[in-house]
Amino acid sequence: xxxxxxxxxxxxxxxxxxxxxxxxxxxxxxxxxxxxxxxxxxxxxxxxxxxxxxxxxxxxxxxxxxxxxxxxxxxxxxxxxxxxxxxxxxxxxxxxxxxxxxxxxxxxxxxxxxxxxxxxxxxxxxxxxxxxxxxxxxxxxxxxxxxxxxxxxxxxxxxxxxxxxxxxxxxxxxxxxxxxxxxxxxxxxxxxxxxxxxxxxxxxxxxxxxxxxxxxxxxxxxxxxxxxxxxxxxxxxxxxxxxxxxxxxxxxxxxxxxxxxxxxxxxxxxxxxxxxxxxxxxxxxxxxxxxxxxxxxxxxxxxxxxxxxxxxxxxxxxxxxxxxxxxxxxxxxxxxxxxxxxxxxxxxxxxxxxxxxxxxxxxxxxxxxxxxxxxxxxxxxxxxxxxxxxxxxxxxxxxxxxxxxxxxxxxxxxxxxxxxxxxxxxxxxxxxxxxxxxxxxxxxxxxxxxxxxxxxxxxxxxxxxxxxxxxxxxxxxxxxxxxxxxxxxxxxxxxxxxxxxxxxxxxxxxxxxxxxxxxxxxxxxxxxxxxxxxxxxxxxxxxxxxxxxxxxxxxxxxxxxxxxxxxxxxxxxxxxxxxxxxxxxxxxxxxxxxxxxxxxxxxxxxxxxxxxxxxxxxxxxxxxxxxxxxxxxxxxxxxxxxxxxxxxxxxxxxxxxxxxxxxxxxxxxxxxxxxxxxxxxxxxx
Length: 685
Known about the structure:
Blueprint: E1 3-9, E2 12-24, H1 28-43, E3 53-56, H2 64-67, E4 74-76, H3 88-96, H4 103-111, H5 113-123, E5 148-150, H6 155-170, E6 174-175, E7 178-188, E8 191-201, E9 212-222, H7 244-250, E10 254-255, E11 260-267, E12 270-272, H8 276-279, E13 283-287, H9 305-314, H10 332-344, E14 348-352, H11 373-381, H12 389-406, E15 416-425, E16 428-429, E17 442-444, H13 460-478, H14 487-509, E18 514-515, H15 516-530, E19 534-535, H16 537-557, E20 559-560, H17 565-591, E21 601-608, E22 620-621, E23 630-637, E24 642-649, H18 660-669
Parallel strand pairs: 2-3, 2-9, 3-6, 9-17, 18-20, 19-21
Antiparallel strand pairs: 1-2, 4-5, 7-8, 8-9, 10-16, 10-23, 11-12, 11-15, 13-14, 14-15, 21-22, 23-24
Helix pairs in contact: 1-6, 1-13, 3-4, 5-13, 7-17, 14-17, 15-16, 15-17, 16-17
């Protein structure tokens, strides 16, 4: 059992759990880290490791890993195709090809990719293999090879469920109904180091007390997911918002928060429309707000139906919006035209699998035989030459139809309303090769970790989360394996946070302050309009000034809830602070002349014209390639209440050769898990 006690803070009694490591988040990365840590602690002789590790979460199954996916959600790993040899160095070269990614991290992801993948296979995730036991791959976005695999539309959900079953077998507790308010820090060798968590119990927030609860722990692993609630148009599960504010306030710096991905997705239900959803070439059309005045809005922008249909097909594995793929009637022209139709013209856009694209505006009739060779050959080899998109989809990927049926939509009978949605954040908090942040003992894994750079192959985030989970667990088990922090030091560190949030809760309950629902709408509007797929320096500076003014008002007046209790107001406060960090990063990059890169377009009336029929509002500044050799860091200074940005040089992968006998000796001593001379690694037993 995890040791529990109560500490009194000026008459306020707060329960405290003491353990070695608290893992924030119950997604695939967090659960993997907890499972790995249990096993490693068990192997190194820790008594009852299930009493030293706990998962802290809002609730099992509430996050992105359990609730998001695509047609066949991709897991990107080191290649295992018998005919196409791959190496960790080649894998790392692909991960860093888009720039702004640390090569040492990419190499570690390559070196550990198969270990992480086979852990999932052994846990029961049903990745398909052939009769010889080979895991055959396919090509995904930003991927020059065929390293991708999939267990179907719910790949990450399989991962969560199998890892949760593993934790249950180990007896590692998953503590639900908790929202993290703060990562506690103490003085440690001249630096602030993590020493615990302050949470609010969601089941006790409406009682007479505060609902506050503490964790006294040597290590914190933050695996709370991405910033889904920041944007108004988002494909994240509703309510998904990683603990960005808590990590910023603890002193952790972030990198590449400028690099979010945007792509076509259905609005209700929220679901990514990549892969076979596009490769079967459904019909796109738009309507007015009431569903009337139907238009084949794509047709006027293409010279032929074959050209249009091929661009739609290519969206399958060129799914995220990419400004480099607009010209020449490329696949990302589809994103531009959907955005133009929905945002600029105020219309609604639908994808319909019941019929092929309609021949209007002088285009010839749809004909699979006239597709570009890349598209035609793919469909021929897949045996997907049926008459309609829904028939082709059923042939290639029936589960992609079934999952919509599970969510209440019959693709055989109705279209999907779609938009260009916020889908993933490639940036996050800066980590080293053990996934430890700049705050000692604070580790960051999963989407919350900023390891991806500008362009990542589809599915590489799942590999990064599993590798990061393993690396953090190794570091903790072999180096940071000692007990929880000193009780007196912890009490001092916790006291300030407890008093601060007790006051915030009391102020929320008093009923005054700004309406948190309206503040949240403003945050999401600001991010979608100025830090979304289309950006401008002038626009983001205006948004940042607005956000800073609103933050000062929140600090001055507080927030009132519309019925969701104190947690609703506290979450909106966190959203408002995190938003400033993201906007400061975007402003910093555009001010440096970053241009259009990754999945965003920087608008400039004097810039490049992506299509001769588009207006000047779609002219854009091309990427500045010289900035690929750096990452943009953003950090919060709690004393001045300001975010600061700076460019940091990318780390290279060290050119080292390892002699087996020497490595074996270092491994037996535990030296391979050490980073600094002051580390005290635990020998491997």
